[in-house]
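Table S2 (continued). Query chain:
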Amino acid sequence: MTEGSLTFTVAQLGQPVQGAFADWQADITFDTQPADGRPGRVEVTIATPSVTLGSVTPQVQGAGFLDTAAHPQARFQAEILPDGAAWVARGTLTLRGVTVPVDLPFTLTLTGDRAQMQGRTTLDRRDFAIGASYGDEATVGFAVTVAVDLIATRG
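Corresponding output:
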């Protein structure tokens, strides 16, 4: 069982604005002492129509941005690997029909059967052809910071 938040921040007219995806699921396998040397895998499925970004939500859902009608799902698939004192989910994000390599560094706190994870990474919206008509950062920034806060219970 998992619960948490999947949010993002992007600059709009030079000011940071935060959006979120309300509908997403994470399928996680994880073992701190795996027999094969691979701690785990994660697959996250995101319902893109569940995106909100204040008053511009309809525009973000539209063809010029996430195009949620044509691409109703995004998917992040990754291996979970140790990264010094923390961890990294190293894999690919498929968004708007484009697949891009992504590293998501995160911290992990294990307490019994409960895992609390916090991760953050920065994407470039242009890699996914999002907001292509905004060729500079005056209106919409290129960098999109994605933050994940997750609590999973071993089931």
